[in-house]
Amino acid sequence: MNHAATNDEIVVEPATAADSADALRMLLGRSPQASIDDILPEACLPGIADLESKAVPGLFCATNANDPQKIIGVIWARHAMPGVHSIWQAFCRPKSPVVESKLYEAIDNYLGSTPFRLARALADIESPFQSRLAQIGFSHQTDIVSRLWQPDAITTGWMPDGYSIHTLRPGQDDEFTQLMERTYQQSLDCPDLVKLLTAKDLLKFYRASTFATQSSFFLLYAESEPAGCLVLTDDMDNESLELTYMGVAPNHRGNGLGQLLVNFAKERAYNGLARRLVVAVDRTNEPAWKIYEDAEFATYSTQALMVRTGPSA
Q1: What is the pLDDT at residue 207?
Q2: How far is CA 254 from the centre of its chain?
Q3: In Å, what is the CA distance from 243 to each residue of 1, 125, 281?
Q4: Domain 148-305, CATH class in plain words
Q5: CATH level 3 topology of 7-116
Q6: What confidence score (pLDDT) does residue 48 get?
Q7: Peptide linkage before 94 cis (omega within 30 of 0)
C-alpha cells in the first residue's frame, strides 16, 4: 500500500538537461509520449536545442527520495525577458499538498537568490495558486480580464483621412520602441509594472514568441507622425488572434485612435479567418475597458495578477 510522502522524503532540485522535456510534459499536462515539437510552442522556448543540450532555467522537479528517477511534481519560473519571470502553477502527480509546498518553497528560494526585477503570475481569483503565491511574497496587483470578439461581420470605411497603419519594416525597431516608451506615459494599463519593463525587452520578447512574425507589429501614423502601435499574435490554439499590445502616444489620446486600432485588429482577424480575437485588459483601465465594450468584446475569464518585485526593480 502506497503511503503519502513526508516532507523529509521530498527532494526538489533544478531540472537537468536529461529531465527537462519530461518535466515540461508534466507541467503542460501532456502525455509522456508527446513530442518535443508539440510542447515547445506552448512553453514559448526558442528551440529544441534548449531541451536537448541544457537544462531549462527556472524549472524545478520534485522527486521522492525513495524513487529519485520518477518526477512527481514540477514548477517553473520561466525567464520571460531579462530580469522578468513568469511563474507557472505547480503540478503534482498524484496531487500532494506536501509536494506543492516544497515546490513553492523552491521558487521562493530561487527568487531570493536571483537579481530579478519582476516576477508575475496570473491566478484564478481566490484559488489555491493565488494563496500559495501570497505566502511567498506575491501581492495582488490588479485583475486581468480576458475578453473576446467573434468575427461575423466587419465594418468598412473606418479609417479617417490623415491616418494610416503600416506593418513594421526592417530598420524601424528604434522608431517602434521609442513610440512604445511614449505610450507608457500616464498609462492606466498596470501602471506600477510599466516602469519595470523596457520597450526594447518587450519587443525582443514578442519577437521570440513562436506566435509572432514580422507582420505582427504595426505603426499608426497621424499624417507622418507615429501616433500609436499595435502587436497582434496568433494564439497557441491556432484559431485565435491575440491583441497582445496596443498603445497611443499621450499627445494623440482622446481622438479615438484606440478604437481605430481595435477596428484594424478586428479586420485582420476577420480577413485572416480567425475564430476569435482575444485581449487581456487591466480591469481598472477604464478607457481601455470602454473601447472593448464599444467594440462588442465579451468577457470570458478574470484572473488575479500576482506580482513580486525584486532587488533590481
Answers
A1: 75
A2: 28
A3: 51, 23, 10
A4: alpha beta
A5: Aminopeptidase (3.40.630)
A6: 45
A7: yes
